[in-house]
Structure to design on (666 residues):
């Protein structure tokens, strides 16, 4: 079904408010879920709402929590999310880092819930004229190279850079595909693309049903594995949170969140740095207008495609799975 | 030919000293080239020496230069490398960041020469008990996704994490392959692997001779392109250095270096962080000992393979291309 974006937002807010969430917090969480669906990252959209409500019911999310900041230096804060909603904590952290007005500021966050898409956080940083980098760990879903068991998170990376125009926005998982997509393809009887997953023996497979019992592959082979693992170590070490199979509580409704988030804000400064945004924008335009490969339609830079899709869906509505919409509506009763 | 590692080191040092480089600086530069060959990254080994000497002759490298630090905050320095050797500047920057003893310290470096491999820098940070991240830009060699022209650097990333034992060491390019490997395969008439490069029309090719006129592909498809481009923007913005086709002076003997380097040192601190290194080491051991895919030999984590190769070559000698050795020896005359 196609849903008006404001109807989706309203439904999420009302569900959360009905479950005791203060209005502004409900609005922030709704915003991030809606952005997932607007940009086509449905695994970070409305379909997350039932788990969030279940976590509220079990007090794994405290809707009234405010993060506690412990500044270890003018540039580094260790933050206890105190079981708050991921977006409520995340945006408060971003704002605190931006307020510092320093060349580099870092926050290592633990005890917070799922951030959802990373794009909205780095976009807020870019809108303030700075560079934002956000890393977060996830449940172990990705197999090591040469292995068959999921030991590494899908550990996404978000990077936002101001350009004078629409920002550069990278928001990508280090897994080849989401676990949700494997499950969706298995249900629909659709084949996976080569390189997306392995079966229980660690053999690459395009059979989604076999992949359900296996693991997601890292994107880009051994390099993607190495990168995803590096991000897991950096985040876990800086935040004092868990690694591998001990990371829990972002996909499920039963475990406290044991993942970590790392937020970095960089403010280029010094001689010749004032125009860095327009300089980066000009470079990105060079790339967009560089010669295309034979048969290629368009050269994008990160953020372009999501921005086009978002605009189209704001106008024409958001495709939502019937079951997902029904499940969300039932949370009102 | 097989060369004793100490003979290689001695040759490089003597060549550099003969060209006016002070002994300690020659030793540092030699160390990083030797490490490239020891670990099998020959494109960052002895074969770079003729270009370094040419750059010395043309005063594009100043062997006496000391980097100038401008601390914009207790955690952030803008560094002018003043045309120094990349490793001389790089290690001085690493040491300056470590000396700060703060939770996060960042140096944005411009005006320095080629760093060589990134592993030695992040290993020094890890040996000091901290986490090191090094990014650097390179000449445009990689095509954008959907494009045919090289517009993005191979922009490598280095990450070092202490583990209580041998450190985790990631040192990888965001290109699928080095330009040197394309040229080498073309000379030898060897085929490339699928996904490594495109021809002049932007068509994927395994014909190395056609790839010479084309461009290197990013690793991991569109995600690798997005990541490499993000790193280029972050480094160029923070260092005030060039982007895309304006990045020059690391592969050639004629242009001033216009690339940038970003060094980050993170010191996890706070309750529960004291044992972070051993915690990360235990997690990496879990991965190494996790179930292997059918037919897979061994599960490594980043750093393992290079460490094995390095130990073997220290013992048995380093394979060096005859022409490369001859060219280096001729620099003595």
């Amino acid at each position: 079904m196609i849903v008006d974006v404001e109807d989706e937002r309203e439904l999420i807010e009302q569900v959360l408010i009905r479950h005791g969430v203060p209005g502004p917090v409900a609005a922030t969480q709704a915003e991030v879920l809606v952005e997932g669906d607007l940009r086509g990252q449905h695994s970070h959209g409305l379909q997350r709402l039932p788990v969030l409500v279940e976590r509220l019911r079990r007090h794994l999310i405290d809707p009234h929590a405010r993060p506690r900041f412990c500044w270890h230096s003018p540039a580094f804060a260790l933050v206890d999310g105190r079981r708050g909603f991921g977006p409520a904590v995340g945006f408060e952290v971003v704002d605190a880092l931006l307020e510092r007005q320093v060349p580099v500021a870092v926050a290592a966050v633990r005890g917070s819930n799922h951030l959802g898409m990373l794009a909205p956080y780095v976009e807020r940083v870019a809108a303030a004229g700075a560079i934002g980098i956000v890393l977060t760990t996830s449940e172990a879903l990705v197999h090591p190279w040469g292995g068959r068991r999921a030991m590494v998170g899908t550990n996404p990376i978000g990077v936002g850079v101001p350009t004078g125009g629409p920002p550069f926005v990278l928001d990508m998982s280090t897994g080849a595909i989401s676990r949700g997509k494997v499950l969706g393809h298995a249900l629909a009887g659709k084949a996976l693309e080569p390189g997306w997953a392995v079966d229980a023996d660690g053999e690459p497979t395009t059979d989604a049903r076999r992949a359900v019992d296996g693991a997601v592959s890292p994107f880009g082979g051994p390099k993607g594995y190495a990168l995803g693992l590096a991000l897991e170590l950096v985040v876990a070490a800086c935040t004092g949170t868990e690694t591998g199979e001990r990371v829990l509580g972002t996909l499920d409704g039963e475990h406290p969140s044991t993942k970590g988030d790392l937020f970095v804000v960089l403010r280029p400064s010094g001689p010749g740095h004032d125009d860095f945004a327009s300089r980066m924008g000009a470079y990105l335009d060079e790339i967009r207008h560089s010669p295309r490969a034979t048969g290629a339609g368009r050269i994008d830079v990160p953020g372009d495609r999501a921005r086009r899709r978002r605009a189209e869906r704001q106008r024409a509505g958001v495709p939502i799975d019937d079951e997902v919409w029904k499940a969300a509506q039932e949370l009102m009763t």
